[in-house]
Amino acid sequence: MDDKEYFNPGIVDEQIDALLQTGSHPNEETRTVHDLQGLYWSDLRSLERVWERLDLGTDTGFGKNPWTKRISHNNKSLEFERFRYMQGQHTQRDKAKSPSTFTRRFGLIAAVLFTALLVGSLVALLNATRGQHNSHNGPATSRHTQVVTNAPNLQVKTPSGVYVGGDGGVTKIDPQTGNVIWGYSITLNKTLKGTPPSMLGAGVNRIILSGNTLFALIVSSASQSTEAQQGIIALNAQDGSVFWHKNVDQGLRDIALGDGQVYVSTITYSAKDSPTSEIHIFNVSTGIEKRSYSLQMDINSMTWNASKLYLGTNHGLYAIKPADGTVLWSQPVSHEQFYVTRLHIVNGVVYTSFDYTNEAGPSHSNIEAFDALSGKQLWQTNDIPGQVYDIALDEKAVYLGILRHSPDKLNVFRGTVYSYDIKNGQPNWSTPVDGAVQSAPVVADGVVYVPTYGGPDGNGHTTTALDASTGSQKWQKPITLGIMLNPVAANGLIYVADCNSFDSKSPLGTKVYAYKADGTLAWHFSIAHSLLALEVAE
Question: Does the keyword Transmembrane apply (predicted)?
Fold first, then answer.
């Protein structure tokens, strides 16, 4: 008999039938045959699934009429009946075993073993073949293996840490102790070696954490000042190693993440035309740019939510399809000078601040809420006297602070913290503070934490804790340098980055503070360059 016929599934089936008719006891040998047959069928089914997943067509003949398909799916019930028959033989008298029976029986065992090994080898071969096939597709697929072993994986938990970005690069700090875990430094090209990144305007100004990956937007005011910078970079949040980076030559604005894509907005200016923004779409795993499109507007912020991109622009508020920029709805603004702050989307509602400047007098702002699907305005606050930089929300209220100049000193700032009902925009309370609120507050466990800056000639550099229900002050701590990033609440602590950007009397630098809920300082960390981004993973 030809070897191929001997190991044909149909022939093997007939041999097993013959064995079952011998009337032997369900001894170890018989059970072994049964187990091997189960392994045999399992491997066949695995091979079939692999073949279907690979979608290799008919190159090998499997796609036309594979011999695995000729095996009836009813074999599962037949196997069960055979097992029952074998179990039922245990009361029968032993029968003499002829040498030929042993020969056939052991031949059968060898056959099934060989078939199982053969199927396993085929599966391994197919996997190897697929890897070789992918390697011919260039850089996009040569990273395929990295997706499994060393590449962005957004489905896992982000490693705990305080991640700060600025003109030096990215630094990860232990959230409980303030000790540095790793640092990624901006690398300058050969012609600019030795030049501080701050002198070139090069730095990380936005960080997004997702899964095991830190996505950073690196900007530079000097043309071609860096090698991997002026673009988007994906770092391993565990150890700071680089997954991928992508250069972007145009002026960078913002970054958003969603649906397995990284969206980066850029802007170009023309003497004749209005600014043109371009949205670049990168694959989250490889960094390969998939497509891009242009919009005739200046995009200052992007927020991704529910497969849509929400844009704050110089024309107003827009919701677009991320794939091609199709406008779903818009809320245009006719005022000549205004600014839309970053959009916050909670429970299907878009919240943002519109800031208006006036050449004849002080600026004013208002908070507005829109239905995320239709763009219909739900409510709007009364005018707020001052400039709003960003807002914070919880399930009850919208919180914000303003910047106003002191009436008698131009370089001294005053501020007020406000709370508005999140359902209708009606005011809850307002609390004056010494110093401008130049970032979003953060609210946690019924407390609003507000960073304030008194101005170059002022003294109101503080972190202030207010009761979220009443606005009454719980505690206040002075800070050293002044300008503060949006604080973050996590791990039972409040993290605040305090940056010295304007005071020429002190060297440029940043301090990061971690406060407990009662105002006790848990730790602080100093770094010799300015920071522009702060994110925390618990």
Answer: yes
